[in-house]
Amino acid sequence: MLGNYLKAIEGYSSVIHKIENALLYDPTNAALKGDLAILLQTRADCIAKRDYKSDLMDATRDYIRSMELFPNNYQAHAGIIHALEGMQQYAKAKKWNAAFVERFEYTGETILKHPDKKSLTKRWNTLKMAGIRDYLQRYVGAVNIRTDIKQARFLGGNDEFIVAGSDCGHMFIWDSGNGNIVKLLKADNKILNCVAPHPTAPLIASSGIENVIKFWSPFEDVSF
């Protein structure tokens, strides 16, 4: 089931990226905006069900973007309510629920899953907050459970990329703007811990469990 969500999120993200690029050249295209609103809401549904740490925050961002494009998106509004409940933001969830009832003239049973719960923020601790805290951007895929010396660095003349090691031995390179993985390099047979981009040259040094340090540089005709 998790694999299905991962593939779906990857597919939706690819199409969303293409539509966002198209809107740069045609920003008033209503059809593109409508498609983008639906795709954002659908991707948010998948992200919320994937259940990685901070996924509910990520899903909420997509739901809000969807509603900015299409304010009467029933599913996106409901998704925000459920995500807020999942993050124990019960007071905010009730406010969004009240707006939902008013906006859609909803007369059915409450869509709140926990209508009687209150936000007990004083009982939160670092462990509980780890899965729901806010962030500027997130880069998903790398694993760090076997060692504690992983690092992530900016890469590129304009910090276009983020690079990091992983327990799987791969070097991950993400687009720093949208969080998409743009390159995977098998850099260590066991675990890749350290990556260090050169400050001026297109060169990366990497080290892991193997007893060697490797240097990585692109071919002249390769770009990503």
Report on the architecture of this protein:
Keywords: Repeat, WD repeat. There is one protein chain. The chain has 224 residues and is of the alpha+beta class. The protein folds into 2 domains: 2-129, Serine Threonine Protein Phosphatase 5, Tetratricopeptide repeat (Alpha Horseshoe); 152-216, no CATH class. It has 6 helices and 7 strands, in the order ααααααβββββββ. It has helices spanning 2-25, 30-50, 55-69, 74-86, 90-104, 126-129; strands spanning 152-155, 161-164, 170-175, 181-186, 192-197, 204-208, 213-216. Strands 1-2-3-4 form a 4-stranded antiparallel sheet, with no helix packed on it. Strand 6 and strand 7 form a beta hairpin. Helix 2 packs antiparallel against helix 3, helix 2 (30-50) packs parallel to helix 4 (74-86) and helix 4 packs antiparallel against helix 5. The longest helix has 24 residues, at 2-25.
List keywords for this structure.
three-stranded antiparallel sheet, alpha+beta, 2 domains, 224 residues, single chain, 7 strands, elongated
The domain tally reads: 2
Which class do the helix and strand fractions yield?
Answer: alpha+beta
The CATH topology label of the largest domain is: Serine Threonine Protein Phosphatase 5, Tetratricopeptide repeat
Read across the widest sheet, the strand sequence of neighbours is 1-2-3-4
Instruction: Based on Cα principal axes, name the global outline.
Output: elongated
Write down the Rg. 21 Å
* Oligomerization: single chain
> What is the CATH class name of the largest domain?
Mainly Alpha
